[in-house]
Amino acid sequence: MKISKYKNLYQITYLPTMFPINCFVIEQEQKLLVIDMGVRPFADQVKKISEQTGKKVSHLLLTHAHADHVNGVPHFRQLFPDVSIGISKRDSLLLTGDFELKKGESQKKIKGGFPNTQIPFDFTMEDKEQIEGISVVESPGHTPGSISFYEPNHQLLIVGDAFQIRGGLAVSGTLNLLFPFPKFATWDEDKALNSAKRLTAFQPKLLAVGHGNMRQEPQQAMQQAIQKAESRKSS
Question: Of 3, 42, 119, 156, whose CB is crowded by the most CB atoms within 10 A?
Fold first, then answer.
């Protein structure tokens, strides 16, 4: 387990040199807000951060329903029974076993691994909602209901698998031979590309993703990743 920090953002990484999976903790003035809970040990690390800072966890927010972002939720619930857990309204259906594509959606197969146990959640989120000052940003493509989170005070953008950094910064759905797994788990590459463009418009000072190290001043690299995705689409 590896813990990194940028300003008020902790990144907790499981298997950092093999198959890195990230969980994030945003430290606020009086509270902690957690994003993603892919493996059980993350909850133990969050508890340690809570004890070290003397601050309680207010929410756990999930970027999407893939197992490597939610499998640790049941243990988190045991350690933090009073913390509200949220996921997008669309991906909440995936957690309940509803994989039927909805009216107006691309009829492409929903891909990726999903949990084989019940994942508890308390509320759902939609685009532009505010939770403890954090903006919810609709960013579908990797899954139909993928969302990202923007923290304006330090211009932090936490995007789940809308981008990857492991193996090189890339848009979800772009094949990166050094870390190909997000490509194979992406539902709709066109929507993923559109979401990447929307996220880049935030001009973040820091990009945090589900797989890979945090990236400071990422704008140019994000634009290059978009251009690469566009060129592969047209070829």
Answer: 42
Query: The whole model's pTM is what?
Result: 0.97
Q: What range defines the domain where residue 208 resides?
A: 2-234
Backbone angles phi, psi at 11, to 5 degrees: -115, 120
Residue-wise pLDDT tens digits, 73-85: 999 999 999 999 9
Supply the CATH number for residue 148's domain.
Answer: 3.60.15.10
139 pLDDT band (50/70/90 cuts)?
Answer: very high
Per the document, the length of the chain is 235
Q: Read off the pLDDT of residues 185-201 as tens digits, 9 standing for 90 and up.
A: 999 999 999 999 999 99
